[in-house]
Amino acid sequence: MFIVIYQFYLKPETEEPFKKTWHLIANYFKTFRGAIGSRLHKTMGDPNNVCWIAYSCWPDKATRDASWPGENAPSSELPDNIKEAVIFMQSCGDPDRKIPELCLEVVDDLLNQWKSAKESPNSSGRYLVKIGLSIEIASFDKASEKWHREKSSNPLPLAINWWMELPP
C-alpha cells in the first residue's frame, strides 16, 4: 500500500471552497483512478496558524503515479473539471508556506475496515465476502455458530455469485 500526505497552509477566506474542491478531487480519484480512499484533517489550536493535512491511500505507487504527475500540473488525462479543480485547490495554498508532499510505504496497518465486527465479543474473526453485482459482508458469530450480514443490501438476482472466506 502506498500513502501520500499533503500539507497546506491556506490563504485567508479559502477554507470552504478548498474543502469542497478537495472532496470533489478525492472522490474522483477513488471512483475512477484506483485510489483506496482519502481523509482531510486540519490542526487544532491557534486559528491563525491552521495546517490542513490530507492523505490518500493507493494500492501501490504505480497506480498513484499513473493518475497524478506530481506538483507541477494535473495530468492531461484527467477530465477538464478535475484539472480545473486541482489548479484551483493549489491556488488556495499560501505560496510562502508551501510544504512538499510526503510519500510513504505502509509497513504495518492497524486501521481495519472490519473493526466493528471484530469488536463483538462473539466474533471469530472469520468473514465471508460475496462477489456479484453487489458486495455483502458477513461475520461469523461464535455463540450461534452462524453467519450474519454486516451490511444489509438488496442485491439484484444473478446467475453466478462467488463466496470467498477471508482469513482471520
Structural summary, described in words:
Mean pLDDT is 76; it is low at 114-118, 130-135 and 152-161. By secondary structure, the protein is an alpha+beta fold. The strands form 2 sheets. Strands 2-3-1-4 form a 4-stranded antiparallel β-sheet. Strands 7-6-5-8 form a 4-stranded antiparallel β-sheet, with no helix packed on it. The protein contains 4 helices and 8 strands, in the order βαββααβαββββ.
Give the structure's gist in a few sentences.
The protein has 4 helices and 8 strands. The protein is α+β, with helices and mostly antiparallel strands and 168 residues long.
List keywords for this structure.
globular, 168 residues, Alpha-Beta Plaits, four-stranded antiparallel sheet, 29% strand, alpha+beta, 2 domains, 4 helices
Low-confidence stretches: 114-118, 130-135, 152-161
Report the mean per-residue pLDDT as an integer. 76
Number of helical stretches of at least 4 residues: 4
CATH hierarchy class name of the largest domain: Alpha Beta
Helical content band = 25-40%
Q: Which outline best applies?
A: globular
Distance between the termini: 19 Å
Level-2 CATH architecture of the largest domain: 2-Layer Sandwich
Record the SSE blueprint.
Blueprint: E1 2-8, H1 15-32, E2 37-42, E3 52-58, H2 61-67, H3 80-92, E4 102-105, H4 115-118, E5 123-131, E6 135-141, E7 146-149, E8 162-166
Antiparallel strand pairs: 1-3, 1-4, 2-3, 5-6, 5-8, 6-7
